[in-house]
Amino acid sequence: MLNPLPPKHLLAGRMVVTVLCLGWLSLTGCGGGGVPEGELRSTGSPDRQVGERQVGERQVGEREPLGPSPAGLEWGTEEAQRQVSTLRGNIQIDGSSTVRPIGEAVAMRFGRRYPRVRVDVGGRGTGNGLKRFQARELDFVHTSRPILPSEAAGLAEAGLPFLELPVAYDGLTVVVHPHNRWVQQLSLEQLRRLFLHSSGTRTWQDVDPNWPNQTLKVFAPGTGSGTYDFFADVLGGPLRSGMSLNEDDNALVTGVSGNLYSIGFFGVAYYNENRGKLRAIPIVNPETGQAYLPERLAIEENLYAPLSRPLFLYVNQQSLSRVEVRQFLRFYIATVPELASKVGFVKLPEEIWQAVEAAVEQPEQHLGSRLLDHHGQTIPGRFEDVYLQSPTALLPLEIPLPATDNPAALELAGEQQP
User: Fold this and answer.
1) pLDDT of res. 98
2) I need a labelling partner for 233 at 20 to 30 A (CA). Which of 36, 195, 320, 393 fits?
3) Distances in Å between the alpha carbon of 415 and those of 243, 285, 383, 388?
4) Cα atoms found within 13 Å of the Cα of residue 410, Cβ hemisphere only
């Protein structure tokens, strides 16, 4: 028969082990192992272990990298830990649906470090976002084209200074149903026949006699979209009527993938997410005569012309008085080169990125647009040259409105956009 009570020496041994365990726990914190000196202990710690599920491209148990510290503080200091655990607020972002995946990726990662800050990211379109921006409803607005002279004038008249930050390159992608095998590439002239109102095109055969005599079904972003504006300006006229318009690019993906005789366009990130449902059409560069797909090197070197373009983040200068907004902006710029590439966009050249970082560090010295002159007019030329060489235009409060707005007046590189 077993003795229900352990011998006295076993009890004593267990007491010693218990005392040692309690001492160890008092040094390392509750349960689950120690935290090395200098690491954050709060639930919002940027160096905490990822849970059992995979997050993004990280594997189970892999540590998240450290992001930028709270302003002027080093990670691991008591004050930095206090700010991470107590920082709270609500940040509003809207604008381009093309750029939305970047904002959502940044906001998700930011939320892991600052769980008490709510970041709302919308995608109602560039034009719609800039209207809300002017109405002081937003802290940030994403755009898939540079700000128009009329929009900058409206912000100046409203007394709303802004910071202009390019964040990535995009290739506007023309897509068809995956079983469409008659279109192998498209020239600029063929794009005009397919999409311009003036073309009068109704069927695929109207564009090329060797193509099917089937009615075109065209899907496009809404008229409040910067992608819509940019495409119209590249093609040199108003787009056709009767298109299925939607600000939600996912709806465009569904539309094109569901109709053999359809065609559409949107940013490259949405194509990359849906490669199995769509086929991207190579675009003939009008300078070289060679067709290119919207791939990283082709976009980066502007071989994918004339449909390569920069994407932007515009910042409400008045919102920078709030600590959570300043911290989010620093975090955004610190992480966007990596995250933009992950969601399918192309990193900016190092020279431009250094200028962006300088603007974030001293925003009061970089308010306005580098792409507009002091009269509020678009500066023509290659995007990189204009952005790097032009001083930021501190726009006056009263600016005569230009006769026309042309989002494609800037070249990404090389030839002038039509």
Assistant:
1) 92
2) 393
3) 30, 10, 11, 18
4) 25
